[in-house]
Write a sequence for this structure.
């Protein structure tokens, strides 16, 4: 591995150049900047918000639970024993 500073050929296991002491570890090719963070967070929040409304819309299409359903009284005469359903 050649040093970027002085051109000295070093063993690839070394982390610093043996001639000039320069750093031989390569910097990461790409590092996320604040724009990337903003964009990624925006996508995450957008996905969560859209997913929340999609799931709540789909749940609202389901019939309500039994204890919240409006049952016609002729179907449940035992709830209203004094009123005889109209025939
Ligand atoms: Zn060097």
């Amino acid at each position: 591995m050649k040093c970027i500073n002085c051109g000295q050929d070093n063993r690839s296991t070394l982390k610093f150049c043996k001639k000039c002491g320069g750093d031989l570890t390569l910097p990461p090719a790409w590092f996320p900047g604040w724009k990337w963070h903003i964009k990624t967070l925006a996508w995450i929040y957008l996905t969560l918000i859209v997913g929340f409304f999609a799931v709540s819309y789909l749940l609202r299409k389901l019939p309500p639970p039994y204890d919240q359903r409006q049952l016609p009284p002729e179907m449940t005469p035992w709830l209203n024993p004094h009123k005889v359903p109209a025939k």
